[in-house]
Amino acid sequence: IQPWKEVTKASDGSLLGDPGHTPLSKKEGVKWQRPRLSRQALMRCCLVKWILSSTAPQGSDSSDSELELSTVRHQPEGLDQLQAQTKFTKKELQSLYRGFKNECPTGLVDEDTFKLIYSQFFPQGDATTYAHFLFNAFDADGNGAIHFEDFVVGLSILLRGTVHEKLKWAFNLYDINKDGYITKEEMLAIMKSIYDMMGRHTYPILQEDAPAEHVERFFQKMDRNKDGVVTIEEFLETCQKDENIMSSMQLFENVI
């Protein structure tokens, strides 16, 4: 799900506005399909670009060669198990691990590292709050550090997961206090953090209250029993019936 798309007015009242992209369902008259597992999709991901930047050959722009490294000295423990758990190839996992160890010799990523990564990729805005929320979504056990294994399992879901897997991950992102429900305040906090990160120059025509308006519309759709919170069941059911959300799944990695 791309809540940052919400900040554009969706003329049809749909949950997700999508500037510059026509939903696949409307453009081609077909239902959303899972994107093919391409290197291009990988290289659009901020976290992958950060990891692989340290392994790129000097002087090359090499978005192609970064995932094709053949001489890899580092190898994560349980590589076969990770390959089974994720949708990355063995070579991709080795390349990701090599970069991960270069950037994080301790084998752990902390929240400050996430903040640094996103401030580099989104210099026009303030990425601090979004990086905090994203880090907490990756940090499943809440111990303040992310191991390589957790990192690639999360990336695999975000970049190559099924619709159901991505929606469950998105629910976890929005559920800030991890109590199993999304409140209106939580949704607004996430949406504002993405808006702040994208920067006011990105959407200069936006009103201050635009995120709140979109959250209000989101909850009218999602909160089926009108109890003021959204459950995982309500979230999955509503999202899977909304073609605009499904088409935007292809673009999910834009702020990951």
UniProtKB/TrEMBL annotation:
What species is this protein from? Aotus nancymaae (Ma's night monkey)
Give the family this protein belongs to, as stated in its UniProt record: Belongs to the recoverin family.
The principal location of this protein is: membrane
Is the keyword Metal-binding assigned to this protein? yes
| Pfam families in the record | EF-hand_7 (PF13499), EF-hand_8 (PF13833)
Q: Which UniProt keywords apply?
A: Calcium, Cell membrane, Ion channel, Ion transport, Membrane, Metal-binding, Potassium, Potassium channel, Potassium transport, Repeat, Transport, Voltage-gated channel
What InterPro entries does its record include?
A: EF-hand-dom_pair, EF_Hand_1_Ca_BS, EF_hand_dom, Recoverin
A GO biological process of this protein is:
regulation of potassium ion transmembrane transport
> What is the protein's given name?
Potassium voltage-gated channel interacting protein 3
